[in-house]
């Protein structure tokens, strides 16, 4: 299509990329006038503005039960995990080609190796000074996520001696295709689904506040972050012999040498306008370098440590005001550890009561975390801000203190790094999905997603006060997901019906589908209770009674002749009836439908009520959570304008993609 009011030369200069695989389109630099004219041109489905996205910042596979002796089927090498991320460091041992079979014949790329595809796209042509104008990773994030999902086994991997062992991904023989992209097309995940590609996405790192979950489109697998049974601690040893244990990934060895210890409040940079109340937090520019030089500083908040470095300090002991918020280890540019507020008061008392207080900070150690798994504080929480009747996140996966490959140019020549975030949990879900895909290459994205949700481990509700709003259906369980018994399948037509029920009309629907034959004939918005989703969510407006009827259909993928009986656990305040209560199958692929009726009294300001529906044939347990909670009157359809909801929905549907073919940080 020619550019309006442009010469052939200017059209070529404006065109950036052309796309023709999953949909037909292009990226171009256009004026506002040109955007308007294109939007009104026949044959143009939509014109979307470029968006820059933010990063959602290996014991883990063994922790999930996917040990080295239980790696995937021979078809694993035919599975491709595509990642949209910061690039990849191809020389990493995690991506070596030794012993790999030929690439899958379906692949149209040009690289016959472990990394069978690598592209980069930068429409702005603006690069960081340290970035490469290629798919090569200068940040490390993409290298980390791709090796987590599909890295080869690397013995002796560690981060400066921490977490030493064999690093590997969940599907070490799967192929990797890396797309270094800053401006993805928002509707890509829907088109991926149409092409039998499951897209998994990080839930976001804005927790523990409610309504912060992102990537809530129902065709996406939305992944929260939880802990594994290993944590990193660094101990602070005071001159009086007291030892305080804190969280930190501290690789700096002070060799047991003690240094003078000072409270940040006693080292205010008055010339810069600071005082004791300000400098106690040790922020940049607030510290008196004459007093801090050569000392360890006790700070009353958590910061990145640069304030101490700029003042020539040796290290820092930081007190956490709320231990439930800072519940994971982090890296700092100097010796550091994060202790509890209670221990911080003891350190401050020692400083104030001792003439020459001293301290040292020890190198970190790996300790067993007997409380794992629990959802980490930063993991974004539900409920779903767009569609209250779809429970999000879908499940949780390891995303805390994960060791994986790294770009050595990004951090002190390290080949491996330990970082945390839902971006770390997401590739675990992608690797697990690839594991199931290798065993069942003909399963749909919805079937694979359903298998992981219904086979998930049950999370301990006592450790996660937000319940399913924190962890969805539970903790991912790849071994069980290979044989789930029943699946809740869904097609493009099902998702179109869902969108129409959410208030989309034919025009706005086509912005998502990219198909001029798509249409909506729904007269007004409705509930999402009939979407064949593997979980159940009922949002009740304040003052209304509990009432809903869900319709579901399951497909038999277990034993040809099988009978599933119903069992439930529900809160006493709600009544649930499932009809029928027995599902009998005589063939694989056979489908059976059932209804779930939920009733209860009028409720107001009700936190999440949580129950479970289970189908059991003696071999398989197909488990689905059911949640009931209250929302403000009128917020089902009017919390945003429909145009704003449509925009938010489209944009978020591509955030943090990490799927069997698709990862976005």
TrEMBL record:
Where does the Inhibitor I9 domain start and stop, copy by copy?
A: 10-56
Instruction: Give its localization.
Output: Secreted
> Which molecular function terms from Gene Ontology are attached?
serine-type endopeptidase activity
Keywords assigned by UniProt?
Hydrolase, Protease, Serine protease, Signal
Catalytic center residues: 85 (charge relay system), 141 (charge relay system), 423 (charge relay system)
Q: Which Pfam families match?
A: fn3_6, Inhibitor_I9, Peptidase_S8
Q: Where is the Peptidase S8/S53 domain?
A: 78-181, 190-474
Instruction: Name the GO terms of the biological process aspect.
Output: proteolysis
Using the UniProt record, give the first listed, main subcellular location: secreted
State the family it belongs to: Belongs to the peptidase S8 family.
Q: What is this protein called?
A: Subtilisin-like protease fibronectin type-III domain-containing protein
Q: Which organism is it from?
A: Fagus sylvatica (Beechnut)
């Amino acid at each position: 299509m020619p550019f309006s009011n442009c010469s052939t030369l200017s059209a070529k200069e404006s065109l950036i990329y052309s796309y023709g695989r999953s949909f037909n389109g292009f990226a171009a630099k256009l004026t506002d006038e040109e955007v308007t004219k294109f939007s009104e041109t026949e044959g143009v489905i939509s014109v979307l503005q470029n968006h820059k996205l933010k990063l959602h910042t290996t014991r883990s596979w063994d922790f999930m039960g996917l040990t080295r002796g239980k790696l995937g089927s021979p078809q694993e090498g035919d599975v491709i995990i595509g990642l949209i991320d910061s690039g990849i460091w191809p020389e990493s041992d995690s991506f070596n080609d030794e012993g790999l079979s030929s690439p899958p014949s379906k692949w149209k790329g040009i690289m016959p190796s472990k990394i069978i595809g690598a592209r980069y796209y930068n429409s702005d042509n603006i690069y960081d000074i340290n970035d490469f104008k290629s798919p090569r990773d200068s940040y490390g994030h993409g290298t980390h996520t791709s090796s987590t999902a599909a890295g080869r086994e690397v013995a002796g991997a560690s981060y400066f001696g921490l977490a030493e062992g064999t690093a590997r991904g969940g599907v070490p023989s799967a192929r990797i295709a890396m797309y270094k992209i800053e401006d993805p097309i928002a509707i890509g995940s829907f088109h991926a689904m149409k092409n039998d590609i499951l897209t998994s996405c990080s839930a976001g790192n804005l927790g523990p506040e409610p309504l912060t979950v992102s990537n809530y489109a129902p065709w996406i697998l939305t992944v929260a972050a939880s802990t594994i049974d290993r944590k990193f601690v660094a101990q602070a040893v005071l001159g009086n012999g007291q030892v305080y244990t804190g969280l930190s990934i501290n690789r700096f060895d002070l060799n047991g040498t003690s240094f003078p210890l000072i409270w940040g409040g006693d080292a205010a940079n008055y010339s810069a306008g600071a005082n004791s109340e300000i400098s106690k937090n040790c922020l940049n520019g607030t510290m008196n370098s004459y007093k801090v030089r050569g000392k360890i500083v006790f700070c009353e908040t958590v910061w990145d440590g640069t304030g101490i470095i700029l003042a020539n300090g040796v290290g820092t002991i930081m007190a956490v005001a709320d231990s439930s918020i800072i519940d994971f280890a982090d890296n700092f540019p100097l010796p550091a550890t994060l202790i509890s507020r209670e221990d911080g008061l003891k350190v401050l008392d020692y400083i104030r009561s001792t003439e020459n207080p001293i301290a040292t900070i020890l190198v970190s150690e790996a300790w067993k975390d007997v409380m794992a798994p629990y959802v980490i504080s930063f993991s974004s929480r539900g409920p779903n801000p767009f569609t209250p009747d779809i429970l999000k996140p879908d499940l949780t996966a390891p995303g805390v203190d994960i060791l994986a490959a790294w770009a050595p140019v990004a951090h002190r020549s390290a080949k491996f790094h330990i970082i945390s975030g839902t971006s770390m949990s997401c590739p675990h879900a992608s690797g697990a999905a690839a594991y199931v895909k290798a065993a069942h290459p003909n399963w749909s994205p919805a079937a694979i997603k359903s298998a992981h949700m219904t086979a998930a481990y049950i999370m301990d509700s006592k450790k996660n006060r937000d319940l399913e709003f924190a962890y969805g259906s539970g903790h991912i369980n790849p071994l069980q997901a290979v044989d789930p018994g029943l699946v809740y399948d869904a097609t493009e037509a099902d998702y179109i019906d869902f969108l129409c029920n959410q208030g989309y009309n034919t025009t706005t629907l086509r912005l998502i589908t990219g198909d001029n034959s798509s249409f909506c004939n729904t007269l007004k918005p409705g509930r999402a209770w009939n979407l064949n989703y593997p979980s159940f969510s009922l949002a009740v407006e304040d003052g209304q009674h509990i009432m809903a009827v869900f319709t579901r259909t399951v497909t038999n993928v277990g034993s040809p002749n099988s009978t599933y009986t119903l069992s439930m656990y529900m809160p006493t305040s709600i009544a649930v009836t499932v009809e029928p209560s027995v599902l009998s199958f005589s063939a694989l692929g056979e489908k059976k439908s059932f209804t779930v009726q939920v009733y209860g009294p009028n409720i107001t300001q009700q936190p999440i009520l949580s129950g479970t529906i289970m189908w059991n044939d003696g071999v398989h347990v197909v488990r689905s959570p059911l949640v009931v909670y209250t929302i403000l009157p009128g917020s089902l359809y009017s919390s945003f304008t429909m145009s704003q909801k449509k925009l938010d929905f489209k944009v978020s549907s591509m955030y943090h993609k990490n799927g069997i073919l698709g990862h976005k940080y």
